[in-house]
Amino acid sequence: MPLIHTLGPKETDSNLTAQNLQDGDPHYQSFGIKLHPDFASIYEKLDQYSGDYFLVPVGYQGPNGDTWTSQHYAHWQQLRIQKTWAAPTMEMLLVENTSQPNRRAVSHKTTKTLLEDFEKANGLHLDIDFVPAKPLAADAFFSGDYQYAIFSQNAEDQLQKKQRVIGRFQPEMIWCLYQIQ
Description:
D-Maltodextrin-Binding Protein, domain 2
């Protein structure tokens, strides 16, 4: 049975999109979903996944400055586009921990612009740490070390009394499903 390789943990937009692909397209219903800690680890092991599929957002930005475009060109002989489509992301929240006034923020790199817009609008300079997935930003925020974070709405029910939502975003993303050669 072929697998769809994408970003985990299970709370990611990538996993939700893979599940929606299975639900909405009979061709992919029997495929398994394999979640990875980051997209870079999938790109590094493409040779091991021949015949499987790879689901990645075109908004991908890797830890070393690589992007969907740079990876698309770097692996053009191993990856064949099977399908592309647009879908809204899960709603994202910009949150503040009012009991931690350290001007530190945690986010996935793709939401950096949203944090920068918030900084400019509020005359702030934030020290931003990046994590490979928005659920990991939520985990880091809930550890208590950050004043601000952006993560997906599915973690909203974990907010405590001194933590508040100060912004909501739900952009569309373009998704690319490759078959790995």
